[in-house]
Specification:
The chain is an alpha+beta fold. It folds into 2 domains: 106 residues, no CATH class; 90 residues, Arc Repressor Mutant, subunit A (Orthogonal Bundle), CATH 1.10.10.140. The protein is 30% helix and 15% strand. The chain is built from 6 helices and 6 strands, in the order E-E-E-H-E-E-E-H-H-H-H-H. The strands form 3 sheets. The protein has a two-stranded antiparallel ribbon with strand order 1-2. A hairpin with a 4-residue loop joins strand 5 and strand 6. Helix 4 runs antiparallel to helix 5. The longest helix is centred in the last third of the chain and has 21 residues. The protein is globular. One of its GO terms (molecular function) is NADH dehydrogenase (ubiquinone) activity. Belongs to the complex I 30 kDa subunit family. This is Cytochrome c oxidase subunit 6B1.
């Protein structure tokens, strides 16, 4: 997995002493076809990529976490995953069992600006993007009394709100990975903005195409 939206396969031929590198593109909502039916040894590699980066492989025989614990939230090798993690796992002497508690930090988590890093790799694509990916979301003008000091923070808030609703529209209301976007925009967006956008969604006048 090459961070951004590229997945790289490196195939080694022992007979011809040669390597082939195959690059493909994906995103958080688009699965890749598993190659386990062709290369059985890719089974655990694809499980590790899913566990660490969140890339979903369709038709994998047993796609589940392989390095992290059961019930782990998030994908540790992604740049938007905090170094400290979201929870603390420790052994409680009084309860005599392992407990999982929310992590308390003295400062807020840093949020990745998707508009700068993720879009960088689009210039390497040699085929036309689908309409829903090629269309650029324009930032809705926020109230001046509620804007972030940095416009990128405002854009990050807006983009995650849009991605959340697009994810559910594409994958369905029961697709849990979509909730990641909700956790992000809920942590950085003022409540007044979210209430306003929710109202616009209900009235069908929301600024972005979902």
């Amino acid at each position: 997995m090459h961070y951004g939206d590229r997945v790289v396969y490196i195939l080694l031929s022992l007979r011809y002493n040669a390597r082939i590198r195959v690059k493909t593109y994906t995103d958080e909502l688009t699965p890749l076809d598993s190659i386990c039916s062709v290369f059985a040894g890719a089974n655990w590699y694809e499980r590790e990529i899913w566990d660490m980066y969140g890339v979903f492989f369709a038709n994998h025989p047993d796609l589940r976490r392989i390095l992290t614990d059961y019930g782990f939230d998030g994908h540790p090798f992604r740049k938007d995953f905090p170094l400290s993690g979201f929870t603390e796992v420790r052994y409680d002497d009084e309860l005599q069992r392992v407990v999982i508690e929310p992590l308390e930090m003295t400062q807020e988590f840093h949020h990745l600006l998707q508009t700068t890093l993720f879009l960088f790799y689009r210039s390497f694509l040699t085929f036309p993007l689908p309409v829903n990916m090629a269309e650029e979301v324009k930032l809705q003008t926020a109230p001046f009394d509620a804007r972030f000091p940095n416009q990128n923070q405002t854009r990050n808030c807006w983009q995650n709100y849009v991605d959340y609703h697009r994810c559910h529209k594409i994958k369905g209301e029961d697709y849990e990975p979509c909730d990641y976007f909700k956790r992000v925009f809920r942590s950085i967006c003022p409540n007044a903005w979210v209430e306003k956008w929710d109202s616009q969604m209900e009235e069908g006048v929301f600024a972005a195409k979902i």
